[in-house]
Amino acid sequence: PRVLPQPHTLPPPPPPLVPPFPRPLPSRDFSNGFLVAEIYSRYFPAEIQLHSYENGTSLARKLDNWDMLERFFKKHRIDITKDEISPVLHQREGGACAMIEHMYAMLTNRV
Description:
By secondary structure, the chain is mainly alpha-helical. It is 49% helix and 0% strand. The chain has 5 helices and no strands. The longest helix has 17 residues, at 59-75.
């Protein structure tokens, strides 16, 4: 019998993420990094502890959350750069959508 290589190194996909409340403005809602942490916590529950992240709107909270995420990305060699984070953090047009598309492609191995 022929042995096929593993398609990727990520664990199997978690159950669907259902936000606890409506998300009407993705650019604002993703800007603090909390939702990104919530998504990655489903794939890496031992690495991302949501109690360490604050779902706040102040620049200090946003920077703290994104700093923790950047360290996580670097540790796991996840290709999300400061250039991709900055438009999300500063709520620039299209920043959140680009980040979501990139994360989807990486986490599902789809384009």
